[in-house]
Amino acid sequence: MAVLLDQRRDIILQLIESQGFASLQSLSEATGASESTLRRDLELLDRNGQIRRARGGAAYVGESLTPFEVRRERASAEKQRLGLRAADLIQPGETVLLDGGTTTLEVARNLAGKSLQVVTNSLPIVSILAGAPEIELIFLGGYLYPKTGVTLGPLTTAALERIKARRLVLSAGGMTPEGLFNSNSLLVDAERKMIEAADEIVVLADGTKFGHSELAFLCGWDAVDRIVVDGAPPPEWRNVFDDHGVAVELTTK
């Protein structure tokens, strides 16, 4: 019976992800389960942060997050420079939040030797810092996305409500003059809680992020204190940063 239950929920997730939205009727036809049984399945999957319940069915929470290894290979040299510059901003004794991006992974690689508290929802970052005796590491629980190695969902956001950090370092999927974007609404939910938990917000961005939006809006520029960029930003972006009081930090090539 447990095998059938797991198979049914796998079918439910596959249908919702492939279609974006699936009605109770279509899920019932695909699984052979009653609508009352499916409502219980959807309630559990919603609590786990895997889908969002909606009237008459359920919706996928966003675009599929790109696998971690694929994202890490993109603009790797730029990400290394961004990570090194951002790590220089972090001072011993701070409590630092690191999101689950591949650029923040490069920040983690450069924190060795600093006495810090590091809070993260990234399993790859945990694997790098777990052996550093001078770093007190706090891993946020939640639903672990296997492709990305980050925890998301209600358990993650609830844990963040009890965290207070000096600094948050995060990367965004895209940036427009309106603000920051990312590709998944659950990812944005967690990052918004991180923003609320930190005194200073530091954004890392390579040149591919300028003028590019994603599915989910994260925050406006008023929420950002610093941005670390690889090379001088386009002239029109200088006005955006100046208007919102965002300090610009440049990498060293």
Describe the protein's architecture and organization.
With about 250 residues, this protein is α/β, with parallel strands linked by helices. It has two domains: about 5-60, Orthogonal Bundle (Arc Repressor Mutant, subunit A), CATH 1.10.10; about 70-250, 3-Layer(aba) Sandwich (Rossmann fold). Helix content is about 40%, strand content about 25%. It contains ten helices and 15 strands. It has helices spanning about 1-20, 25-30, 35-45, 70-75, 75-90, 100-110, 125-130, 155-160, 185-195, 235-245; strands at about 20-25, 50-55, 55-60, 95-100, 115-120, 135-140, 145, 150, 165-170, 175, 180, 200-205, 215-220, 225-230, 245-250. The strands form four sheets. A seven-stranded parallel sheet has the order 6-5-4-9-12-14-15. Strands 1-3-2 form a three-stranded antiparallel sheet. Strands 10-11-13 form a three-stranded antiparallel sheet, covered by helices on one side. Helix 10 links the parallel strand 14 (about 225-230) and strand 15. Helix 5 (about 75-90) crosses helix 6 and helix 6 packs parallel to helix 7. The radius of gyration is 20 Å and the shape is globular. The N and C termini lie far apart (about 60 Å). About 40% of the residues are buried. InterPro entries: Carb_Metab_HTH_regulators, DeoR-like_C, DeoR_HTH, NagB/RpiA_transferase-like, Tscrpt_reg_HTH_DeoR_CS, WH_DNA-bd_sf. Keywords: DNA-binding, Repressor, Transcription, Transcription regulation. This is HTH-type transcriptional regulator UlaR. GO terms for molecular function: DNA binding; DNA-binding transcription factor activity.
